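Entry 14. Structure prediction run on the chain below.
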Amino acid sequence: MKKLALALVCLFSVAFFASCDPEETVVENPEPSIAVLDIEGYLNEGFEANINTPYPFGFVMASNPETGKELASLTISTVQGEYEEVYNTLTISGTEYEYRDTIMWELSRDEFLGTVTIKATVTDVDNQSKTSTMTISVFNPALPLLTSPFEWYRLGNTQTGLDEFGLYWENNQKATHAQIKPKDGVQMFFFEPEVYDATTTDIEKASLFNNAVETMHPQPVYNNVSTSANGTYNDVIGTIDAEGNTHLIHITKCVIGEFVPAGYPITISGEAK
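Output returned:
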């Protein structure tokens, strides 16, 4: 009877100590931490930025305090709509890391960016990752257009002043009006006279020409200026060259000079933006 009691005590002891074996602790959220670097002047959520201007930004990250796993890598990307582009990828180490950088959106004047999200993902050596983001607005501020006078001159086969606009002055032959034509790869459009004064910024100008390309037909020749007498005009034409450069041209005057052996010198003048 004593032996049986002793056996039961031993079995109870084994069961007790078995139930107290330590088990591996499960961390419910084992990923590292990451947040936007909060420094005055740095990009942050809701920031309003301009194109062609550098801005500092950063993120701060740390290992999970429960797992203590060291950090391994960091990926920075920019997201606009469904399009994501990797901005920087680097290998890191340790349990804390601070990332600082500068970003600038370099765009042509006819582009509008809108909202952009800067996304940072940190991963530790255990392949646990965490992402932090900030969404900012990038603006394309309008710039006032600069105007400058122009003169298109022709005497015989000599002509000057038209190249910069992507135009040439074809031989008039017996025509009584100047034959101004676009060079290869250049599109020319006709606009209403009031368009010239109404177009005051680079963005308005870009919109004007974008609309022209989408809704208007390019013109093969501008021939409204008489070559037989002085005259005043109020014509507005525009050109787009193969590189996308645009010129808004206001033609206001034509002057016929005194006859010389090479013929009559003709000067067409006005202002361009």
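Residues 2-19 form the longest helix (18 residues).
Filed with the rest of this week's runs.
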